[in-house]
Specification:
190 residues; alpha+beta; Immunoglobulin-like; 2 domains; six-stranded antiparallel β-sheet; four-stranded mixed β-sheet; 10 strands; rod-shaped
Length: 190
């Protein structure tokens, strides 16, 4: 009779231990496999995006016939856009305005919309995008033009990049400064 009671007590103790172990394994499994993970957030101590101009190219003349030839130049910007966070983002919109030596460039006094929205940028990733500026006019920018064709202008590009991450949307302002730029200028443009 005593042996039977010992056996029953041992069985109950073993069952209680198994229940505790099973509950612990179940809680750990729920925590790692089934519990919803919090949505990652952008680190507010870092910039949301880093936007730089890697190259600025000015071309003159464009293909304009007649008396307007050699009075217009075209600007092309190569932007390097870096995501410094560990969360993937999507570039949805890219707009910018251009200033030469502090003065708005005619034709760019309002924001110029980038033509390549909806680009994914991986965590810590970088994309390169080229965007044009509408023509610069020799007649509309008479003070800026002679300095531009000499390569003496300091350009400032101010804009807004809209990004989407984890279901959120954010407008990120940026400003770049460019002193060195490439010129392909016909003598008749000067």
């Amino acid at each position: 009779m005593m042996r039977t009671k010992n056996w029953i007590a041992k069985f109950i103790a073993l069952a209680v231990v198994c229940i505790f172990i099973g509950a612990g394994v179940g809680l750990i499994s729920y925590h790692y496999f089934f519990k919803p993970k919090p949505t990652p957030a952008l680190d507010t101590k870092k910039p949301f995006l880093e936007v730089n101009v890697s190259k600025l190219f000015i071309l003159c003349p464009p293909a304009i016939p007649g008396p307007q030839a050699y009075k217009y130049a075209r600007m092309m910007f190569d932007f390097k856009i870096h995501n410094p966070n560990d969360v993937a983002v999507r570039l949805e919109k890219f707009e910018y305005a251009v200033y030469g030596d502090g003065h708005a460039v005619a034709g760019a006094e309002r924001m110029v919309r980038g033509e390549y929205p909806d680009k994914a940028i991986a965590p810590y990733g970088t994309i390169n995008e080229s965007f044009p500026l509408p023509y610069i006019s020799k007649d509309e920018d008479p003070a800026l033009w002679p300095e531009m064709v000499k390569g003496n202008v300091i350009w400032t590009i101010k804009g807004i990049a809209r990004i989407r991450y984890s279901g959120n949307e954010l407008d990120v302002p940026f400003e770049c400064r460019v002193e060195d730029y490439s010129l392909q200028i016909d003598e008749r443009c000067k």
